[in-house]
Amino acid sequence: MTERKKIGLIIVNPESIYQQRVMNGVFSRCDMYGYDVAVFCPLVNAKHYYRNYLLGELNIFNLADFDKLDGVILTPLTYDTEGNKEQTDRLVQRIKESGKPAVTLDLPMGGFEMICTDDRSAMADITEHIVGVHGCRDIVILAGMKDYYVTDERLEGIKDTYAAHNILFDESKVFYGDFWYTGGEALGDKIISGEIPRPEAVISMSDHMAMGLANRLMENGIRVPEDIIITGFDCVPESAINTPSITSYVPAAAQAAQKAVARLHELIENVGPDPNEKWEFEKGLFIGSSCGCPENV
């Protein structure tokens, strides 16, 4: 019997929704190819406050025997490659020394080939809802970190929709945050104080920032969506039960993970792309109460 091929998936904090979508995509495509998957996974967030505990968790990177794997999928979006540079550099070095093919998801790392979730068209769709359905023009963009690949891609999607509606993109309307509640709270404080004039809508690049913003505004008498419309991104479970629930978007992370496995399959088996390949899994806009439309979350 031919030995089954083995793919290594290196991911951090498996309970988070992005990681779950990636795992679903990897598992489904490996099942189709008859591949096994070995998941190497620290169980805590890569920015865990207790550094020594985190370093112990990250040591699992050193336990992967890449000589026994046929390919590797890296998810640097989950690693905090700046804060954990020594550990992630060592990981890249060990993979390169093994000579095994590797691909990364959503962020560049180690010069490996990168497969990206299509965040650009997703943000264009969200922006179309705000501009086309709600008719908003005075919009603040609550972005992620400045000069960060994911932030830049999502900004391009917003610009695409602006261009389609002949709306001038104004960099001064971009507020850079951190993808977490704190980024939204910081913008909320500036709107509440009047430092930033109250806009018609805020397009947030993450649900956590959207919730931080919405909750801070509501605590201070600014209604969502009656006074300010807010949208998020990622469709994390918390956003559906927040008050208000957040209009958001399920990104195509599972499809990107499937494509990563397909690319490894091509490299391992020395075959070309399948022209009939289909990428499945749910994606698209989900309406919460934060924009004023009837909910479907």
Give a structural overview:
It is a single chain. The protein is of the alpha/beta class. It folds into 2 domains: 6-116 and 252-282, 3-Layer(aba) Sandwich (Rossmann fold), CATH 3.40.50.2300; 119-251, Response regulator (Rossmann fold). Helices cover 40% and strands 14% of the residues. A 5-stranded parallel β-sheet has the order 2-1-3-4-5, with helices on one face. It has a 4-stranded parallel β-sheet with strand order 7-6-8-9, with helices on both faces. The model has no long low-confidence stretch (mean pLDDT 93).
Short summary:
The protein is of the alpha/beta class and 297 residues long.
Number of β-strand runs: 11
Write down the overall geometry.
globular
- Order the strands across the largest sheet as they lie in space: 2-1-3-4-5
- Return the CATH architecture of the largest domain: 3-Layer(aba) Sandwich
Q: Which segments are poorly predicted (pLDDT under 50) over 5 or more consecutive residues?
A: none
Helicity range: 25-40%
How far apart are the first and last residues' alpha carbons, in Å? 47 Å
Q: What is the chain-wise order of helices and strands? A: EHEHEHEEHEHEHEHEHEHE
CATH fold type of the largest domain: Rossmann fold
Number of separate structural domains? 2
Strand-pairing-aware structural class? alpha/beta
Write out the CATH superfamily name of the largest domain: Response regulator
How large is the radius of gyration? 20 Å
CATH class of the largest domain: Alpha Beta
